[in-house]
C-alpha cells in the first residue's frame, strides 16, 4: 500500500515561491514514476509535473515550464515541487500521485494513489 502525504501549501502574492512536499512511503524506494497534479475550482484535475524517481527527464505542463521543478530526496522518501514566479492562475489544490498498476507515469485519469492535497492560493 502506497501512502502519500502532501504539505507546504499556503497563500502567497504573485511572483512568490512555495515548495510542496509529498512523503511517499514505499514508492520512492521502488523508483517508479510519480507526479504532481492540481485542480482549481470548477476545473478538471490537470498534470503539472511527472518524473521517474530512478532517473530520467521530468515532464512539465507547458503552463509551468521554467517556473516549477520536481525533485526527490530518496533518503527522506519525499518528492518536492518547487514553485517559483507564482501566478494567480496557479491557484489550486495540489496533489501528488503514483500509479496503482504498472510502471507508467500517472495521468489525471489513470488509476492512482492520491494524497489528500495541499491548497495553494496566489493573489495578484
- Measured by DSSP, the beta-strand proportion falls in over 45%
Q: What is the helix content?
A: under 10%
- Oligomeric state: single chain
> Got a strand count?
11
Give, in order, the helices and strands.
EEEHEEEEEEEE
| End-to-end C-alpha gap | 40 Å
Mean pLDDT: 94
Largest sheet: 7 strands, mixed
What can you see in these coordinates?
With 124 residues, the protein is mainly β. 3% of the residues lie in helices and 48% in strands. It contains one helix and eleven strands. It has one helix spanning 27-30, and strands at residues 4-7, 10-13, 18-24, 33-39, 46-52, 59-60, 68-73, 78-83, 92-99, 112-114, 118-123. Strands 2, 4, 5, 6, 9, 10 and 11 form a seven-stranded mixed β-sheet that branches. A hairpin with a 6-residue loop joins strand 5 and strand 6. It starts with a strand and ends with a strand. The model has no long low-confidence stretch (mean pLDDT 94).
Report a brief summary of the structure.
With 124 residues, this protein is mainly beta.
Which helices and strands occur, and which strands form pairs?
Layout: E1 4-7, E2 10-13, E3 18-24, H1 27-30, E4 33-39, E5 46-52, E6 59-60, E7 68-73, E8 78-83, E9 92-99, E10 112-114, E11 118-123
Parallel strand pairs: 2-11
Antiparallel strand pairs: 1-3, 3-8, 4-5, 4-9, 5-6, 7-8, 9-10, 9-11
Amino acid at each position: 500500500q502506497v501512502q502519500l502525504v502532501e504539505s507546504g501549501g499556503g497563500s502567497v502574492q504573485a511572483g512568490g515561491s512555495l515548495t510542496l512536499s509529498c512523503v511517499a512511503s514505499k514508492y520512492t524506494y521502488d523508483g517508479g514514476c510519480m507526479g504532481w497534479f492540481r485542480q482549481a475550482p470548477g476545473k478538471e484535475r490537470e498534470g503539472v509535473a511527472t518524473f521517474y524517481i530512478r532517473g530520467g527527464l521530468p515532464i512539465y505542463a507547458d503552463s509551468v515550464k521554467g517556473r516549477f521543478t520536481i525533485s526527490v530526496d530518496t533518503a527522506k522518501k519525499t518528492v518536492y515541487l518547487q514553485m517559483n514566479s507564482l501566478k494567480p492562475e496557479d491557484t489550486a489544490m495540489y496533489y501528488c500521485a503514483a500509479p496503482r498498476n504498472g510502471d507508467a507515469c500517472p495521468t489525471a485519469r489513470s488509476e492512482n494513489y492520491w494524497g489528500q492535497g495541499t491548497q495553494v492560493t496566489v493573489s495578484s
